[in-house]
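Can you make up a polypeptide sequence alongside its tokenized fold?
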Amino acid sequence: MSDGTPADLFFDAAIGLLQRVRDEEAGAITAAGTLLADTVAAGGRLFAFGAGHSSLAAQDVVYRAGGLALMNLLAVPGVVGVDVTPATLGSALERVDGLASAVLETSPLRAGDALVIISLSGRNALPVEMALTARSLGVKVIGVTSVAYASETTSRHSSGTFLKDHCDVVLDSKIAVGDAELTLDTIPAPFAPASTVVTSALMQAVMATTAATLADRGVEPPLLRSGNVDGGHEWNGRVMTEYGDRIFYRH
């Protein structure tokens, strides 16, 4: 590791990755935003899924001030975050065959909807099976993953494939295998993961593209406003009433 504080070096690494995805994934971001806009315009519903820390980027675009009201979280019990005890159970569930199919069969997802699947490695059974099954149901799939894992690791799905192999659009986060940006001679393992920063930025870039694409077509994007600004609750109430049949995170 070169000169500079660990904080400076982490910021440099994160900024470098953000610049790479901005430049190298511009076409994929446009394609993903267009796919979601097409889905909204056609009356479809939007869902996002991630397991473990990948779920953070999915949760970041659900019920979010400045975000699309129509983005729903597809939750798989036990794998949404580290709130499950023991936390290692979530990692184990990602490798269970059949879990994704069971979740999709009991979810609101249907043909014509769109599903964003976030998985850094894209190698576990859960995201691969989810993409495969969703597409077989007529759902469009956007995958957010690090493509490097496909060439440097092996798949844990019976097909030997990765998430990236079963998507309509793939967004490559460029994160190195192992998800740790820094090393020090005095520390025995690499540290400082940047996947959350980069993946969340990719997701927000797609959401922004979706909103602007809808507006370009003369469709008002169903955006939420902060409840902490005057009129925010009233605004959100109007949006949720208008699009209530496509919002699943409220009763």
